Amino acid sequence: MSAAHERSVMVVGDRFEEFLTHPGTIGVSAMLEFLRIGAGDGPPKITVGQGLTGEQLAELDKFAETGRCVLSTQDRVPQPVERSVTHKVYEKNVLIGDLERVGEGRYRTPLVLDERVEVLEDHLTGLHIPAVTLLEAARQTWTAVTERYLIEPEPKSRFVISHVNSTFLNFVFPIPAQLEYRLRSKEQGPVGQVIAFTVEIQQTGRISARFEAEIRVIPERFAEKQEAMAARQTLRDETTPRVPTGV
């Protein structure tokens, strides 16, 4: 690979094999190997796409800091947000970066897709990122915004989805993308709060997907009690003999 070029090269995860057939793209493993060797006549100009693991992002970030490569459109290599605010256990399943407040009730975060994520590891067809992966990224966005900006850490809460309306407008490809959260309403209900919002996924200046949703934020002690009661009632309904109709 020649390091001397005016246009940047798009670095994406190795699993996006079909996308990597397009000119101007390179798999992350090949790029990191190139940077480790230090070949070429100058630092390559790169844009960080999707599919990189946390370890690969960190290594690429070090190369950028030391001048071994030049970032094209980003201030720095994006890093995933902390797991706790997304309600995930494993770092590979975190799909968003750190949050930025961009206005009253408005927040933005980059899509930071690890190719090993649970909603992608068994479903990758064609060139684009599957819809179910985008939905999970939106869920993590509204969860992180709620945790960090809209509620107090104590008492502990549970989030219950009331409804989600999804609209998919354009394919999302494994290149930089952002999610924007807009708060529509936040009201106190009989138990906990009711929060309505819109999350949009944007790529190359276009809206690719939109999720309009509402969640209830319920104190954990009440949520556990309600769930246990519902489980017992459902079990009784399923195991109680039914009287045949029409007899």
Give the tally of structural domains.
2
CATH superfamily of the largest domain: Hotdog Thioesterase
Characterize the main sheet: 6 strands, antiparallel
Q: Would you tell me the structural class of the helices and strands?
A: alpha/beta
**Mean pLDDT across all residues, rounded?**
91
Q: What general outline do the C-alpha atoms trace?
A: elongated
Total strand segments: 10
Order of helices and strands: EEHEHEEEHEEEEH
Low-confidence stretches: none
CATH architectural designation of the largest domain: Roll
Radius of gyration: 22 Å
Span between termini: 79 Å
How large is the share of residues in beta strands? 25-35%
CATH class of the largest domain: Alpha Beta
Give me the side-by-side strand order of the main sheet. Answer: 5-6-8-9-10-7
Q: If you consult CATH, what is the topology of the largest domain? A: Thiol Ester Dehydrase, Chain A
Helix segment count? 4
Pfam families: AfsA
Domain A-factor biosynthesis hotdog: 87-216
Protein name: A-factor biosynthesis hotdog domain-containing protein
Organism: Glycomyces niveus
How does this structure look, described?
The chain is α/β, with parallel strands linked by helices and 247 residues long. The chain has 2 domains: 9-71, no CATH class; 83-228, Roll (Thiol Ester Dehydrase, Chain A), CATH 3.10.129. It has 4 helices and 10 strands, in the order ββαβαβββαββββα. The protein has helices at 28-37, 54-65, 131-150, 220-239; strands spanning 9-12, 25-27, 45-48, 70-71, 100-103, 106-110, 157-168, 178-188, 193-203, 206-219. Strand 8 and strand 9 form a beta hairpin. Helix 1 packs parallel to helix 2 (54-65). It is elongated. Residues 87-216 form the A-factor biosynthesis hotdog domain. This is A-factor biosynthesis hotdog domain-containing protein. InterPro entries: AfsA_hotdog_dom (IPR005509). It comes from Glycomyces niveus. It holds the Pfam family AfsA.
